[in-house]
Amino acid sequence: MAGRYVMGALGLALMGLGVSLVWAQSPWDVAVWLVGSIVLHDGLIAPLVLLVGVGVALTRPGVRGPVRAALVTAGCLTAIALPDILRPGPHNNATVLPLDYVRNWLVLLGVVGVGAGVVVAVRHVRGRRHRRPL
Question: Is 0.70 surpassed by the pTM of this model?
């Protein structure tokens, strides 16, 4: 019971930190980020996940869950990486983004795709085992 209160207090403290960091930014930057995230989610990510989910459900019934999970994860990774991919601004400190952001984003998307493929393959193998006659 005490753990809930500790976690609740920690959550409130982190929300307060987030609010203070937002207030420290320019209101225009925050508004652009909020509107951009809504447009990206509602205009691209959600329709894409729904369309692919319906398409996969019609062609391969047991695959829809892993494919949709992979698409949602890829969408989140893209939403996080997109600002630095589209506008890699100059940095005074060379250690801020020392690695190739586009390459690492593509590697993560590949890992997500391979992970979804492994889940689908394991489900397929398990399904075959259960269907075999004894």
Answer: no
How crowded is the C-beta side of 54, counted as CA atoms within 13 Å?
5
**What ranges in the chain are assigned the alpha helix state H?**
2-24, 27-40, 46-59, 64-86, 101-131
User: How far apart (Å, rounded) are the C-alpha atoms in residues 99 and 76?
Assistant: 20
Using DSSP, state whether 97 is helix, strand or coil: coil
* Local confidence pLDDT in tens for the 134 residues of the chain: 788 999 999 999 999 998 888 788 787 888 888 888 888 888 888 888 788 778 777 777 678 788 888 988 988 888 888 877 777 666 666 666 677 788 999 999 999 999 999 998 888 888 777 665 65
d(CA 114, CA 29): 36
